């Protein structure tokens, strides 16, 4: 399970997203295409300069991956959250 970075593109392995969101990896691509899984990418500033935080949301789960500029995974986490407005039940 890996992350690849090339220019402005960040590619996250479906297995990693699936593991963190408690989904089969095979389901991840179609859920992303259907916008059932949504994501946010944040670029670090100040003390976090050169790092990225990727957040993935599916129903009542949030997965986060913190990356170095090289693509190395520095931290990953998953937790249950309140249902996001507008997300499918």
- Largest beta-sheet details: 4 strands, antiparallel
Shape: globular
Largest sheet: spatial strand order: 3-4-5-6
Mean pLDDT: 90
Task: Describe the structure in your own words.
It is a single chain. With 89 residues, this protein is an alpha+beta fold. It has one domain. Helix content is 16%, strand content 42%. A hairpin with an 8-residue loop joins strand 3 and strand 4. The longest helix is centred in the first third of the chain and has 8 residues. The mean pLDDT is 90.
In short, what is this structure?
The protein is α+β, with helices and mostly antiparallel strands and 89 residues long. The chain is built from two helices and six strands.
């Amino acid at each position: 399970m890996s992350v690849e970075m090339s220019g402005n593109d960040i590619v996250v392995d479906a297995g990693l997203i699936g593991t963190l969101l408690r989904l089969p990896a095979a389901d991840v691509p179609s859920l992303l295409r259907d916008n059932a899984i949504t994501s946010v990418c944040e670029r670090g500033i100040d003390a976090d300069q050169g790092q990225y935080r990727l957040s993935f949301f599916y129903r009542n789960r949030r997965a986060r991956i913190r990356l170095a500029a090289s693509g190395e995974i520095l931290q990953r986490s998953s937790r249950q959250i309140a249902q996001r407005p507008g997300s499918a039940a």
